[in-house]
Amino acid sequence: MFLEQFRLDGKAALVTGGSRGLGLEAALALKEAGAKVAVMARRASFFEEARKHLGEDALYLEGDVRDEARLEELCDQVERELGPLTVLVNAAGISWGAPSLEMPVEKVREVLEVNLVGAFLASRAAAKRMKERGYGKIIHIASVAGLKGEYPEVLDAVGYSASKGGLVALTRDLAVKWGRWGIRVNALAPGFFPTRMTEKVLPKAEPLLRATLPLGRAGRPGELGGAVLFLASPASDYITGVVLPVDGGATAL
Fold first, then answer.
1. Is 151 a catalytic residue?
2. Distance of CA 82 to CAs 39, 85, 97, 242, Å?
3. C-alpha to C-alpha distance for 27 and 38, rounded to whole angstroms
4. Ketoreductase domain: which residues (predicted)?
């Protein structure tokens, strides 16, 4: 009875930023639970790694989350080829590191456009279709950086932190506005995980993580997918507006 609630057999799921990193892990978790998965990335060349893991039965979609018209086209394509869009995971994201007093404002704008505005545009495109059926799951990949400040020795990327804080607020607001249509909107707030985005930051942050985190380490590959699956599946049907940290206890401090 209970394990069956975590199945997604035949459900169509779209993962933005799903070609690598935490987005790819999310796509793998959804596929393992039986979902028909589409992954979206800015360039077709990004799909090489994803194809090795997801195979040829996944749908690979090239597009930019800042392009509203393209998002509408891709949601239509998902529904034509995979069926009604039931799950959206917003994992597309970028960062730019620099001391806050020297941060180029154009980089702050770019990060906000991709991480926050892009997530809203993708969510809105998906929600239009979910509303028609009275059901849907939207999951934002936020960050602990959106829940608390970070020492510059750990993370010096004010635009990234601001974008993730905005994503936390967006999650809660859309959950309230869209709950009447059966659309659940939740977020995950990962701590440090080994990805291309953190490959330059993580080595210098690890000593501090070991010394300060309750679990004493960064996240490992495979430790986010289960949380994605929970929020995507019927097991979480009575949950909306929640931001779940997956952070080794960072936000408990």
1. no
2. 12, 8, 38, 28
3. 8
4. 11-183
- Does the residue 177 lie in any domain? yes
Give the CATH number, domain containing residue 45.
Answer: 3.40.50.720
Residues in the chain: 253
Q: From the candidates 135, 151, 160, 238, which is the catalytic residue?
A: 160
Q: How far apart are the C-alpha atoms of 56 and 1, rounded to whole Å?
A: 32
Range of the domain at 220: 3-243
The closest of 41, 135, 128 to 87, measured between CA atoms, is 135
Name the residue with tokens 């998906």.
126
- Average pLDDT by stretches of 10, the chain with 253 residues: 96 98 98 98 94 96 98 99 99 94 97 99 99 99 95 88 98 99 99 82 81 92 98 99 97 92
DSSP code string of 10-70: T-EEEEETTTSHHHHHHHHHHHHTT-EEEEEESSGGGHHHHHHHH-TTSEEEE--TT-HHH
pTM: 0.96
